[in-house]
Design brief:
Layout (H helix, E strand, L loop, with lengths): L4 E3 H7 L4 H10 L5 E3 L2 E5 H17 L4
Antiparallel strand pairs: 1-3, 2-3
Helix pairs in contact: 1-2
Length: about 60
């Protein structure tokens, strides 16, 4: 059974970030996530939506 919930390590790998950077981005609230027992968890569907939204914002600002 494939889960929609990702750990910090999985989301760092998915976003091609160093683990330390992923923790910093999550702590700032830049990516959608939540804590369970002090450990970060992320819904893949929300990360995908965040990527899509961020991409649209960058294109509209003239960034690529």
């Amino acid at each position: 059974m494939s889960s929609d919930i990702m750990t910090m390590e999985e989301v760092a790998d998915y976003l091609k970030l160093k683990l330390k950077t992923a923790y910093a981005v999550a702590a700032r609230g830049d990516i959608p996530g939540f804590k369970v027992g002090g450990q970060w968890r992320f819904r893949k569907s929300e990360i995908d939506a965040w990527i899509k939204q961020s991409s649209r914002q960058n294109v509209s600002k003239g960034k690529r």
